């Protein structure tokens, strides 16, 4: 399966495996929390686990693996990291505002009211 | 000629990262970046200005440490459940920050750090509504946001 | 030796990411309200993107990276459009 990893030293393989497992483990924990937490506003915190260090760990592992196995710097994966870091807060904020708006319109739950209508 | 030098530079860098470095790609990427920054200038004339850019690495380091710490905290909350006396809750806090770019950066930081989410900003009252997953008492959170981030962002941007 | 370590790690990571995708899909199908479904979709595509990056490590090809980037962009735009629809649709009602 992995052809180009034959000449990779063991410490490098251990490092790549470490970051890979941290990233995917955090993504899995985030998904578990996403299923377990009871209300929407608590659930909104769970995906950020996967998008902060989940993405970070896997992107780091990919950068390390491609840089070490081809012995030249391969940093284009960092674009994925930057992109996810910039876009996830935007989607979460938009969704949270949509949820606030809907909860206020239907008057359910204990959602704080807007102080003054604009 | 170059209305947004930082934007142009980062676009060229992104082009080179995607396509690999060669002289032709450097030329083509520079063309694309310059035209894109002209388009940006036509869209939005207000330009963010960095006062003390040398404080930016400190901000990055703070965010890095906080992300790791709150990742661990939120993972513990999810796996073990919340300790007794801790609840999730909404939090309204006043902000003194006014610069739009700085507010956007604060919102991105607070949302991408697990455990706190930025919900709504009221521009006329200058209040922000946050949701916090593990709320012990409100004072600590308000203090943390104000002293750690707001002061630094005000120094950088205002 | 390093091949075994990498193979195990990549397989475990793919297994965990697939589990995360399944959990997000469950939330997407039985989430009580529309915003839960949308955030489930968001989580689903981010995990799919991570799975593609791990595929790239497993096979040693760079082509998966571009697929992951495209998924990230399209997913972001679709989530923003859906959230916007959620706000505007209620206003018109």
Automatic annotation (TrEMBL), chain A:
**Has UniProt tagged this entry with the keyword Transmembrane helix?**
yes
Q: Where are the transmembrane segments?
A: 6-35, 47-66, 78-100
User: Key word Membrane present in the record?
Assistant: yes
Q: Which UniProt keywords apply?
A: Membrane, Transmembrane, Transmembrane helix
The record's annotation in InterPro entries points to: PhaG_MnhG_YufB (IPR005133)
Protein name listed in UniProt: Monovalent cation/H(+) antiporter subunit G
TrEMBL record, chain B:
> What subcellular locations does the record give?
Cell membrane
What sections of the protein cross the membrane?
12-38, 59-81, 101-119
Could you tell me which InterPro entries the record lists for this protein? Cation_antiport_E
Membrane topology recorded in Swiss-Prot or TrEMBL: Multi-pass membrane protein
Keyword line: Cell membrane, Membrane, Transmembrane, Transmembrane helix
Q: What is its main location?
A: membrane
Question: Which PANTHER family does this chain map to?
Answer: NA(+)/H(+) ANTIPORTER SUBUNIT E1 (PTHR34584), NA(+)_H(+) ANTIPORTER SUBUNIT E1 (PTHR34584:SF1)
Q: Which NCBIfam families match?
A: PRK08965.1-4
Q: What family does the entry list?
A: Belongs to the CPA3 antiporters (TC 2.A.63) subunit E family.
What is the protein's name according to its record? Na+/H+ antiporter subunit E
Species source reads Rhizobium oryzicola
Automatic annotation (TrEMBL), chain C:
- Give the subcellular location: Cell membrane
- Name the source organism: Rhizobium oryzicola
> Where on the tree of life does the source sit, at the highest rank?
Bacteria
Q: Which UniProt keywords apply?
A: Cell membrane, Membrane, Transmembrane, Transmembrane helix, Transport
Q: How does it sit in the membrane?
A: Multi-pass membrane protein
**InterPro entries referenced in this protein's UniProt entry, alphabetically:** MrpF/PhaF-like
Family, similarity comment = Belongs to the CPA3 antiporters (TC 2.A.63) subunit F family.
Q: Where are the transmembrane segments?
A: 6-26, 38-57, 63-87
This protein's name: K+/H+ antiporter subunit F
Which Pfam family, just one, is annotated for this protein? Answer: MrpF_PhaF
């Amino acid at each position: 399966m992995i052809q180009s990893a034959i000449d990779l030293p063991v410490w490098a393989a251990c490092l790549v495996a470490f970051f890979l497992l941290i990233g995917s483990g955090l993504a899995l924990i985030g998904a578990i929390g996403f299923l377990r937490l009871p209300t929407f506003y608590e659930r909104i915190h769970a995906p950020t686990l996967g998008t902060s260090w989940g993405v970070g760990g896997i992107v780091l592992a990919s950068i390390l693996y491609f840089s070490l196995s081809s012995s030249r710097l391969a940093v284009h994966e960092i674009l994925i990291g930057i992109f996810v870091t910039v876009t996830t807060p935007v989607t979460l904020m938009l969704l949270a505002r949509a949820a606030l708006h809907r909860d206020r319109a239907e008057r359910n739950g204990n959602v704080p009211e807007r102080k003054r209508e604009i | 000629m170059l209305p947004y030098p930082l934007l142009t530079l980062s676009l060229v860098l992104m082009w080179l990262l995607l396509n690999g470095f060669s002289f032709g790609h450097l030329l083509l990427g520079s063309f694309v970046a310059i035209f894109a920054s002209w388009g940006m200038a036509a869209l939005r004339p207000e330009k963010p200005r960095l006062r003390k850019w040398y404080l930016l690495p400190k901000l990055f380091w703070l965010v890095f440490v906080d992300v790791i710490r709150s990742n661990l905290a939120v993972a513990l909350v999810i796996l073990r459940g919340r300790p007794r006396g801790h609840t999730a809750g909404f939090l309204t806090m006043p902000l003194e920050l006014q610069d739009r770019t700085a507010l956007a950066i604060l919102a991105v930081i607070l949302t991408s750090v697990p455990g706190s989410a930025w919900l709504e900003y009221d521009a006329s009252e200058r209040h922000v509504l946050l949701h916090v997953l593990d709320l012990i008492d409100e004072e600590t959170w308000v203090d943390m946001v104000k002293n750690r981030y707001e002061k630094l962002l005000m120094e950088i941007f205002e | 030796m390093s091949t075994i370590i990498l193979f195990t790690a990549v397989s475990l990571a793919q297994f965990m990411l697939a589990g995360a995708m399944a959990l997000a899909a469950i939330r997407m199908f039985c989430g009580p309200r529309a915003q839960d479904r949308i955030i489930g979709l968001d989580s689903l595509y981010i995990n799919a993107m991570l799975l593609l990056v791990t595929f790239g490590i497993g096979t040693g090809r760079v082509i998966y990276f571009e697929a992951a980037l495209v998924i990230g962009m399209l997913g972001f735009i679709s989530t923003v459009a859906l959230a916007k629809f959620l706000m505007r649709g209620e206003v018109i009602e």
